[in-house]
Amino acid sequence: MNKYNHPGVQYFQHVSEHCIHYMSIDGVIFGFSENQLKVLLLRWKGTDEWSLPGGFIYKLESVDTAAERVVQERTGLDKLYLKQFHVFGDANRYDQADTWRRTKMPLDGIKWSERTISLGYYALVNYSLVTPMPDLMTDECRWWNIPEVPGLLFDHNHIIDVALQSLRRELSDQPLNQLLPDQFTIPELQRLHECILGAPLDSRNFYKKMLASGQLERLPERRSGTSHKAPYLYRFQP
Questions:
Q1: Which of 15, 141, 170, 229 could form a disulfide with 19 if both were Cys (CB 3.0 to 4.6 A apart)?
Q2: Same domain, 23 and 133
């Protein structure tokens, strides 16, 4: 392939003409399934290298609209909960030469800035509703359990860490119903909290706290197929 026909070169030419220079969006898309907190990652074309979904901001587009577009294109979801959690603006965020080498991009065919400031957004999504979709630059889009995330391109491991810290600080104010099915058990809700916090919680105290919060409605149905006494199902109050 002629290096100037490389999809990456064509993409960055498009970005250079139509998008705001020096600024990008990085999206940390959280899901929860099989008692594991997960994050959606992309594998770059022809490599074993992974990164977060991201993109650039069109000149006539708001930053929030750009973030919604980036996440919608990777998940297929129209309705999203998104939060801007940090601005990543260090002068030297990562080793650019090493990053371009790992992505196998023809660096001499790309005209782009030496520095990019990134707006970090995290999304809370229902895992079962997501259809992971790669983009022009990638071959694969799939979920990874948070503890198993590999070494990522750019500074994306750091971005995930900062997103988790932000989510932990504001956990009581976040709509965790976005991460859960409509009906769930208290142990499942507790496991979600534990995954986010990275620490175990006392079951009795957690149960009392959740019931006292007034956020939950107990349903008449129980979860079948468990090894212990079938627990009641709950849902969040409207």
A1: 15
A2: yes
